[in-house]
Every structure is written in C-alpha cells, then in structure tokens.
Amino acid sequence: MDTAVRMIHPKRVLVATVPAYGHVFPLVPLAWALRNAGCDVLVATTGWTIGAVRHAGLSTVDVAVDTDLAPIYASIRHAYRPEHPGSFDGPERLGGILPLYAALGEVMTPGTIAIAEQWRADLIVHGAYCAAGPLAAAALDIPSVFVNVGIADTPEFLWQHVYSPVAASVGRPSVARPTLWIDTVPASVRESTPAEGARLPMRYVPFSSACAVGAEWFARSDRPVIAMTIGPTGPQARGFRALRSLIRAAADVNADFLVTFAINPTDGPAPESPVGPLPANVHAIPWVPFDRLFAMCDGVVHHGGSGTVLTSLITGVAQLVAPQGADSHYNAAMLSRRGVAVACMEPTVTTDMLAHFVTMDACRAAAADVRDEMLAMPNANEVAGVVAQVAANTAGVDPV
Question: What region does 244 belong to: left with phi over 0, alpha with psi -120 to 50, or beta?
C-alpha cells in the first residue's frame, strides 16, 4: 500500500465522536496516526469525553457547550436489558438504543457544522454513531470517513437508521455517503462479507487510558485466570446485578477471576466491591487497560460490548458473553458463529457453564486464528496515509 502523501499545508481533519468512552477510544490510534501523516487533527465531541480526549494528548472542542447529557443518557436504560431483542433485522439489531444516538446527533450537529466551517476542515472522520459528522460533511461539501465501532454497524445501516432521521429532524437537506469506510472488524466474524462503498480494513488497536502497570501483571498463575467485566455503561444503566450473578457462579469454579468495579478510566486502588464480600477466587482489581488485563488471562467473561469484544479478539482470548442489551446480543451471536465465544442467552450464567468455558480448547484455538487474521490487517499508519490522501484529494479513493 502506497501511503506517501505530500502536503504543502497540513490538511485539517475534524474527528467527530459521540460522548462515550467506547466510541472515543477506538478513534484515538487513528487520530494520532493522522497527525503522524502530517494532518492537523481536531476532535469534536462534548460532555465528559472532552477530558478523555485531552488525556489522550489530542486537541478537542466542545460542540454542545452547556448541554445536559444526563436526560439523554437516561433513555438508554430501557435498552440495557438481558432479554434477547427477538430479531437482528433493522433497528432490533441494536436492541432499542438507536434513539440515544439520534438525540445526540440533534444536539451535536449545529456545533459540529459551525466548527467545521470556522476551522475550514478538509475532511471529517467520524465514529459510526456520530450523525453530526456526516451531516457536517454534507453541509460543507467535503468528504467524510466512516469508522466502525463494532460488529453491528455499517455505513448503510447507520445512514438509514440514524443519519437520515437526524438530518430530517434538524432541517438538513441531505446526508452524504462516506468516501471511505474504515473497518476494524475481521471479515470472518461478520455475518457476511461487506461489499458496500470504499471499505478499508484496519487492525484494531486497543486504547482506553494510560496507566502504570506493576510487575505483577506479567506473572502467571498455576491455574486458569479469567477476566470478568460488564463494561462502563451497564452499571450506569442497571447497576451491578449482572456482575453479582457472575461472581456467585464463579465461586465454585477451579479458576481465578479478576474483576474491576471501576466504570471509568482512573488511577488509584481498586474500588470497594458494590456487591458485598467476594469469594476467595474472585479478586477485585483497579482500572487496567483491557489489552494488558486480557493478555495475562486464559479467557474473558463479559457483557458483549464492542470495545471488549474487539480487544478480546486482538488479544486472542476465548470469550463467554452474557449479553446485557444494545448490540451485545448481535455481537454474541456473531462471536459464537465464528467459534471464538460461548454465548449465554439465558438470564444467568451458571457455575457449570463457567467451568465448561474454562476448559474449552476449541474456543481458544479459534480465538488464536482470529487474532492472526486481525494482525494481518493494515495498521493505523498505513490507513492514515490513505485517509490523508482523501483529505488532499477530494476525488477519493478506489473501492477496496
């Protein structure tokens, strides 16, 4: 891949993302690669993720100043239910969470268009669920680049179910299709081979936060070590009920379980258990970037969130997924189909299920195969060269 880009003046790339850690973090490695490719990068977001972007060393602008996000995010509580949505066709694929992204699109679009005009952006790179990105690109008649967050999202799906409704809601005449689709999901995990638009695979790079990793994180246990998490959003929506159930099931399994109760990237010791005393084989740990945590584990038990899924895949560990809502049921189905995960579609995970998962060699072999598939995908620096060329030449690129 020829990634050489010559620019007399740095091209301005506006990176737009909704205010959620799981949506900001996947964009950070690409944003830095774009800076290394010679682009001027500015991140457009709002709310609590302003701080997360700053801590990642990137410049950011608040496009919805003084907006109270709490009422908007309160709407996700109905979407975080362990029940199967019943279908993966249409909006059901995301288990009722699409109205959240529509509401965020409505409050972020005016400010994103304004800053794109004032800053004279040449290109907009946006996370899959950020409607403000493609709407701003259409308003300025500049190219846009779609970056997927997880398995469930594709440009066509989001164009139909989020971007077009938001455009109608805020009175914008149209939404341009993306010039390029950057896809971090390995093809073998997808339901079908994507063929829409100019799709460019990119190796997933886990990013959550910087931390000091002690020497104990490189030690190995004499028996299986399993990470356990339900992510940051589930506890905010439903509390720690799901994690309490998992911990009870783990008590009689011949393995050590590492669980974190921190829901945000933070330094400091492990927070106190919100579920009471822990069994002897379940250990509370502080916030640790998941790629570091999973690398020392033999498996991961989790809620099916996209960041946890992709980090598990690139780390090559087996997964047991107990879906908690949104896109997690779809993710669990696709992972189970590929053989890298056990999908628990029942209300609770049992001790027998956990004990069986700990010994599933076939699941680990499939996980290793997918890890190798992902490692063969173009890296962020290679992809950034292509994106920078799009910024320099609005004629775009040939479909991949």
Answer: alpha
Query: What's the pLDDT at 237?
Result: 59
From CA 1, how far away is CA 4, in angstroms rounded?
A: 9
| Interatomic CA distance for residues 114 and 121, integer angstroms | 11
Nearest to 259 by CA among 238, 56, 235, 236: 235
Regarding beta strands 144-147 and 341-343, do their DSSP bridges make them parallel or antiparallel, or are they unpaired? Answer: unpaired
Element (H or E) spanning 259, and its range?
A: strand 256-259
- Tell me whether domains 12-203+377-392 and 215-375 share a fold: yes
CATH number 3.40.390.10 given to 215-375: no
Q: What are phi and psi of 40, to 5 degrees?
A: -90, 120
228: helix, strand or coil: strand
Q: Tens of pLDDT along 280-299?
A: 999 988 878 889 889 989 99
Q: How many angstroms separate the CA atoms of 332 and 340, rounded?
A: 10
SS3 357: helix
In this prediction the pTM is 0.90
Burial 236-250 (b: 16+ CB within 10 A, else e): ebbebebbebbbbbb
147 bridge partner residues = 127, 182
Rounded Cα distance between 88 and 194, Å, is 17
Asked whether 162 and 105 are in contact (CB, 8 A), the reply is yes
pLDDT tens digits, one per residue of 121-132: 999 999 999 999
Burial of 335 (0-12, 13-18, 19+ CB in 10 A): buried
Q: Show the CA angle centred on residue 247, arms to residues 242 and 253, nearest 5°.
A: 135
Q: How does strand 282-284 pair with strand 256-259? A: parallel
**Beta carbons within 10 angstroms of residue 63's beta carbon:** 26
Task: Give the residue among 133, 141, 138, 143 at the shortest CA–CA distance from 111.
Answer: 133
Q: What is the CATH number of domain 12-203+377-392?
A: 3.40.50.2000
Collapsed DSSP state (helix, strand, coil) of residue 145: strand
Burial status of residue 76 (CB atoms within 10 A of its CB: 0-12, 13-18, 19 or more): buried
Domain boundaries, the chain: 12-203+377-392, 215-375
Calpha distance 381→194 (Å, rounded): 23
Q: How long is the chain?
A: 400
Query: 395: left (phi > 0), else alpha (psi -120 to 50), else beta?
Result: alpha
CB distance 261 to 284 below 8 Å: yes
